[in-house]
Amino acid sequence: MNSLDPRVNRLDVSKTMEGELLTNSHLITWEVFHQDKRGKQVVHCGIVHANTPEMALILAKEQYARRGKTTNLWVAKTSDVYTFNSEDEDIFETTPEKVFRDPGYYKVRDRIEKYQQQNKINV
Amino acid sequence: MSNATKELLFKMADDALIIGHRNSEWTGIGPMLEEDLAFSSMAQDKVGHAQALYNILHESFGEAEPDKLGFMRSESDFKCCRFVEQPIGEYDFSIVRQFLFDHAEFIRYDLLTQSSFTPLALLAKKVKGEIKYHVLHGDTFFKQLAQGTEESKARMQSALRDAWHLALGIFEKSEFEGELIAQGIFVGEDELRNRWLAKVTAIVEAAGLQVPDTNESKIELGGRRGYHSEYLKPLLDEMTEVVRLDVNAEW
Amino acid sequence: MYGSTNLTEEEAKRMNTIEEDPEKLEAFEARIARGEKIEPQDWMPAEYRKQLIRMIEQHAHSEIVGALPEGTWITRAPNFRRKLALIAKVQDEVGHGQLLYSAAETLGKTREQMLNDLMSGKSKYSNIFNYPAVTWADIAVIGFLVDGAAIVNQTINSKGSYGPYCRALERICYEESFHLKQGHDNVVYLATGSKIQRDMLQAAINRWYRPLLHFFGPPDKMSAHSEKLMKWKVKLASNDEMRNQFLDMYVPKILELGLTFPDPNLRKNNEGIWEFSDPDWDEFKRVINGDGPCNKERLAVRRYAEEAGRWVRQALMNPKDKYQVPLA
Question: Which pLDDT tens digit goes with each residue over A60-74?
C-alpha cells in the first residue's frame, strides 16, 4: 500500500478479513462503576468488552479513568446485573407524594410560639 | 559522579522515548478497541517519562532542553538498547516486549526510589504507580495468551524466543557501574538482571511456557555505547521528519 | 453523516407511513415532548430504534476511521508537547468509538455486526475522513476545524431523546474541548511561525475547505425531510443551521490570523447567514459512495486491524460466555 502514513506502509495490508466477525468475537460486556473520591458513591459509567474480571478492570482503567480523579473501579458482567422492567416504573410513582417520610413535612415552630404566648413563657 | 548519573539518565530516557514511540504506532490499529486504548496510554506514559528524565538532565546537568535532546541528537548519541528499536511486528512480539521490558523498568524504578541522586529518586516515587499498571497489563495479557489457544501459545513461545537475547541487552553494563554502585546512585545492571530473570522466569513457567536458554554471546549489545540496530536511524528520521522542515521554528 | 441523519426519499416516505401501537406511541411521544429520555428497556417504535442505531453506528465508525488520517502523523510529531497531545487525541477518538458502539449496542445491534457492516462498506462513516492528511499542518486543521465541526454536531445531538447516546455525547463533548484547544494551539503556532509553517498551514486550509462544507451534509433544500425524526428528537437541527453555526464560530478565528479561505464568495450577509460558493455536491456524492482519495485505504487498514487481531481475541474468548445486550 502506498500510504501517506509510514506506519500503514509497514503493515501487510494484503491481510484481509476472512469471513465475518461472529457474535462475542469482541468478547462479552461488563458494566463498569466508578468512584472519584473516597467517601463518595460508586457510580455506573458504561461498559467494556472483556473476558475475565482482571481484564475488565485493566481495560476499564483506560476507558473510564483516563481523566479526572479516580480512586477505584468496580466491574460486573452485564448478565450479573439485574433491573426492574421498564413497564414497572409506575411502582415508584407515588413515592414523592409520601411526604410523611420527609423532614420538611414536620413544622412545629408556629405551634410552639402560640403555646408560649398563651402561657406567657419567655425564653 | 555526574558522568555516571548522566549516562544512566540518558539510557533510561532514550529507552522510554523509543519504546513509547514504537507502542504509539499501534494507536488506531490494535486488536480490540479497549486494548487499543490501553496500549496508547502506556505509550504516553513512556514518552512522558522520557520527557521527565531529559528534564532532569537539563536542570541538574545543564544539558539542552528535552525537545532538543529527544529530537535533535544523532543516532550514535542515543543510548537506548536494541530491544526497544525493533519494529512493532505483530501483536505477539509487541506484547512480549511490553511484558519483558516493563518488568525490568518496574524493578529499576523501584530500586531507584532509594537512589542517593534525589531528582531521580523523586521521579521514581512519582511514576511507580504508572509502571505498576504496565506490569499488571503485561502480566495479564501474557498469561492469558500463553494459556489461550494452541495458536496463541505457540506465538507467545516463539515471540519469547525472538525477544530473549534482545531483552538481555537492556542490562548492558556501562564503564560507570562501579561508581553508580559506590555512590548509592543505582545498584547496577547485574543486580537488576538477576532480579528480572527470577521474576520473569517464575511468570513464564507458571504460564506453561519455557524461558529460552541464555547464550551470552548472542545477547544484542552495543546500544548503550551508541551502536544500534539497523532500525534506529529510520525511526529517528521518521520521528524528526517534521521538526527538520524548520529546526529553528517553534512547533 | 456524523451523528445526523440523511434519509433517502424512499426511507422518508416509508417512515411517515409505518403504523405502530397507537397507545404506546402516544405515551412514547408524550415522554419525549416532556423532555424525558428514552432508556434501552422502553418500548419504542421500530423506526426510532432503526434510525438511532444507524445514526449512532455511523458516528462510532467515524470516530475509529477518523483516527486513521490523524494517526498518519503520530510518529512524526515535532516535539514532546505535540507528540503527547496527538497520541492522547487519537486515543480519545478510539475511546469515543468505544462509547458510541456501546450506546448503539444497548439498542440490540452487536459490536461485531456493526464492524462487519463497516468493513463490507454497508455502513457509512463521516465523509471527511476519506481525505488524506497530506502534511503536518493538516493535523492542525483537522484538530481545530474538523473537531470544531464535530463539536457543533455533538453539542446539538446531546439534547436528543435517547439516554445512552446523550450520556456518551456529554462525555465526548467534554473530551473534545481538549481537542479543540490543542488544535487551535497548533494552528496558532503554525500561523504565527516561520514562512514554511505558515505556507504549509494555508495550503492545508485550502485543501480542507470544501470537505468541511460537505461535513454537515447536503443543503436542506436537497435533503428529504422527516418531521418524525425531529418530533422524536433524533434529528435536532437542520444541516444548514449546523453548517451556519460552524462557519460563524470558526471562520473569524482563521481570518484573525491573517489566513484566507479559497472562496471569494465566503461572507456573512445582513441576515447573519454565511454565504459561500457551491461546494460541488456531486463530489460529495461520489466520495461517500466509495470514490474518494482514501476510502479504499481506510477500510483496508480497518480490515487489517481486525484480521491481525483475530488470534488475540480468539485466545481471550471464553466459548461458554453468552451474549447479553448491555444495560445503559
Answer: 999 999 888 999 999
pTM of the model: 0.93
The distance of A97 to chain B (nearest Cα, Å) reads 45
C-alpha cell, B109: 524504578
As a whole number of angstroms, the distance between CA A47 and CA C103 comes to 9
Predicted confidence (pLDDT) per residue in A21-53, tens digit: 988 899 999 999 999 999 999 999 999 999 999
Q: What percent of chain A has pLDDT over 70?
A: 99
Pick the residue of A11, A17, A64 with the most C CBs within 10 A to test the interface with C by mutation.
A17
Q: Specify the higher pLDDT residue, C169 or C4.
A: C169
Q: Which residues contact C291 (CB under 8 A, 6 or more apart)?
A: none
Q: Please list, in sequence order, all residues whose beta carbon lies within 8 angstroms of the beta carbon of residue C155, skipping any fewer than 6 positions away.
A: C173
3-state SS of C177-243? HHHHHHHHHHHHHHHCCCHHHHHHHHHHHHHHHHHHHHCCCCCHHHCCCCHHHHHCCCCCCCHHHHH
Backbone φ, ψ for residue C275 (5° rounding): -105, 150
Question: What is the structure's pLDDT at A12?
Answer: 83
- Burial of B21: CB neighbours in 10 Å, binned 0-12, 13-18, 19+: buried
Contact at CB, C316 and A22, closer than 8 angstroms: no
**C305 vs B28: CA distance, rounded Å:** 8
- Report, as an integer, the average pLDDT of B218-226: 97
Closest by Cβ to B87, choosing from A10, A50, A61: A10
Taking contacts as CB-CB distances below 8 angstroms, the residues of chain A near B37 are: 59, 62-63, 66
Q: What's the CATH class of domain B2-245?
A: mainly alpha
Q: Which pLDDT value is given to residue B1? A: 64
The three cell numbers of residue C40 are: 434501552
| Cβ atoms of B92 and B155 closer than 8 Å | yes
- CA-based nearest residue to C298, from C127, C91, C176: C127
Whether residue B237 is predicted with pLDDT greater than 60 in this model: the reply is yes
Task: Give the pLDDT score at A122.
Answer: 81
Domains and CATH numbers, chain C: 9-316 (1.20.1260.10)
Residues 155-194 of B with CB under 8 A from A: none
ipTM over 0.85: yes
C306-309: long-range contacts, CB 8 A cutoff, minimum separation 24: C306/A17, C306/A21, C306/C115, C306/C119, C307/A15, C307/A16, C307/A17, C307/A18, C308/A11, C308/A15, C308/B29, C308/B31, C308/B90, C308/B91, C309/B30, C309/B31, C309/B32, C309/B91
C272 vs C279: CA distance, rounded Å: 20
Domain boundary assignment for chain A: 22-118
Q: Under CATH, which architecture does the A22-118 domain have?
A: Roll (3.10)
Tens of pLDDT, residue by residue over B133-157, are 999 999 999 999 999 999 999 999 9
